[in-house]
Write a structure and sequence with these properties.
- The chain is built from 4 helices and no strands.
- The chain is an all-alpha fold and about 100 residues long.
- It has a domain of about 55 residues.
- The longest helix has 14 residues.
- It is globular, with a radius of gyration of 24 Å.
Amino acid sequence: MNTTTADARSAPVTGQPQARQLRRSGDDKMLAGVAGGMARYLNADVTLVRVSIAALVLFTGAGVALYVAAWLLIPEDGVDRRSPRRGSPAAGTASANPHDDQNRD
């Protein structure tokens, strides 16, 4: 086997763009950052996205429900989706019950 062919096949591809993540904007927001995050994801002007959302709200009525759903489902910038559960040892929280530490006889 030719070693140059093997090296070329095992080399990582650098010409491909990184995967984009849809997140609500923390910097470019008026209400919840949904339009800013969508504009960044689509590489579009935020004003066009806001006008599109306003048109959905005015003409179909579904825009409000879609905006609220996006607000609830799209994570905010800088917030990790996989956070530890409450009360788990990984979360670093103690039990809320003060009697858990006492021995019962």
